[in-house]
Fold this sequence. Notes:
The protein has helices at 10-29, 76-82, 85-88, 90-110, 159-225, 231-265, 295-298, 300-321, 366-432, 438-472, 489-494; strands at 116-127, 140-152, 326-337, 349-358. By secondary structure, the chain is of the alpha+beta class. The protein has 2 domains: 32-114 and 157-324 and 369-494, Outer membrane efflux proteins (OEP) (Up-down Bundle), CATH 1.20.1600; 115-154 and 325-358, Single Sheet (Outer membrane efflux proteins (OEP)). The protein has a 4-stranded antiparallel beta sheet with strand order 1-2-3-4, with no helix packed on it. Helix 6 packs parallel to helix 10 (438-472).
Amino acid sequence: MKLPLLPESPASRTSRLGVPGALLLLFLLAGCTVGPDYVRPQAPTPATFNVPAGWKVAQAQDAQIPPDWWRLFKDAQLDQLEARVAPANQTLAQREAALRQARALVDSAQAGLFPTLSLNADKTRNRASAGAIGLAQGLVYDNYLTDVQASWEPDLWGAIRRGIESNVASLQASAGQLAATRLTLQTQLAADYFQLRADDTQRQLLADTVSADQRFLDLTQSRFDQGVAARTDILQAETQLRSVQAQLLDVGVQRSQLEHAIAVLVGEPASGFHLPNMPLDQAPPPVPLTVPSALLERRPDIASAERSAASASAQIGVAQAAFFPTVTIGGNLGYQNRAYNNLVSQPNSMWAFAPQIQLPLFDGGLRAAALDQARAGYDQAVANYREIVLEAIQNVEDNLAAASILSSELGVQQQAVQAADQTLRLTDDQYRQGTVGYLNVLTAQTVLLSNQLTEIALRSRQFVAHVQLVTALGGGWDPAQDPLTQTSPSTQLTSSAPSP
C-alpha cells in the first residue's frame, strides 16, 4: 500500500472523514503487512538412496516405521525401558519446559493485537500554595478520581502479526527439538541396551571358555603327572586360563557402565537399577526404507530447522515495520470530584480522547542495522536448514551401508568361527593322541576365541546400525499426529507460515 508523498495531518483527515471514517481507515491500514512472505527454502535432495542389494524402498501400501519403532526388534525388556524414557528423563523435562515457554511467547505476542483496558481509582490530598493566584491560596482539599483508561496501537504495517508468525514458528521449532531430543534419547537407550546384551553374550562365551580352559589345564596336569607332558605345557595352559578370566572380569566393568547409563536415561538412580543377563542371539529386523524427500517431513530435527528459518523470515517484517509511522489511540472515561459521596454523577463526568502518531526521523542507523541483522539471521537459518538436510541424508546413507556391509561381514565371520572350532577339535584330538604339542592347542584356542569375540562385536554393531538407521529415517515421527506441533485455532489464524 503506497502512502501519499505529502500526507494530510491526522487532525484535518479526522475532521474531513469523521471519527468513524478515521477508524475505518485505520482498520484498512491494519491489513498491510510488510516484509517477505515465507517460502520453504530449497535443499539439495537426491531422488533415492543408494539401496543395497536385498533392500527395497517401502511403497505407500507397505508397512512404515511405527512411532514406537523399538517394537520392530521384538524385545519385551526393551519395550518396557523405552516406555519409561518420555515420562522420566530429565533432559526431556527441560525441553518440555522450553516448549511451554514458547507457547507463552505466542500468547504474549497475540495480546498485542488487542487494546489494553485498566480500571483506576485514585485519591489525592492537596494543599495549594499560599502565594497561588486565585481563591485556593493555602487551601487543603481532597481529589477523588475513578476512570477506565484504554490504549490501542493498530497493527498498521503488520509488525505484531509478523511477530506472532515468528513466535508460532519458534513454537513449532521447539516442538521439533523436543521430538528430536526424545528420539535421540530413545536411540541411545536402544544402542546401550543391545551393547549390554552383547556384553552378556561375551560374558557367557568367556565363562564357557574358562570352563573349557580349566578342563585343558586339568588334562595337561594329568599328562604331566603321567610324564607325557612338559612343565611348560602346564604354564601355558594356566596362562591361557588366567587371561580369559581377566577378560571376563573386564567385560563386567563395561556392562556395569552401560547399565548405569540406561538407568539415567529412564530417570532412575544407578545404584538401585539392574537388568538381568540376556545374551544377544537373534537377528535384527528389516527396516522399512523411504525416499529421501520423505526426510523433510519425517525427521524432527529437519522440521525444527525449517521452522527456525520461518521464524527468522518473519523477523525481517518486524524490522521493516519500524521504518513506518506508528499510531496509538488512547483515552479515558470516568468521574472526578473533591468529595467522594457524589463522585459518580453527571456533573462530575470526564473523558479524554488522545490519538497520537509518531514517525521516527533519525536514530543513527539503528533501524537499518536491525533490518540487516534480521536478514543475516534468516540467511543463517536457511544455511543451517540445508546443512541439516545434507547431514540427514548422509546419516541415512552411512547407516544403510553399515547395516548392509555388517550383515555380509557377519556371515563371513560366522564361517571363520566354524572353521576355527573345527581346527580346535582336530588339534585337541591330535594332542590327546600325542601327535602335536600343547602349543598347537593353545594357538587353536586363541584363534577360536578371537573369532568368536569378533562375531559378537559384529552382531552388536549390526544391531546398533539398524537402530541408527531407523532413527535416521525419522523414527516413525509424524508431525501431523504429534500434538506438540499443533497450535491453537487463534494461533493458526494469525500465522501465515505453513506447517513443516
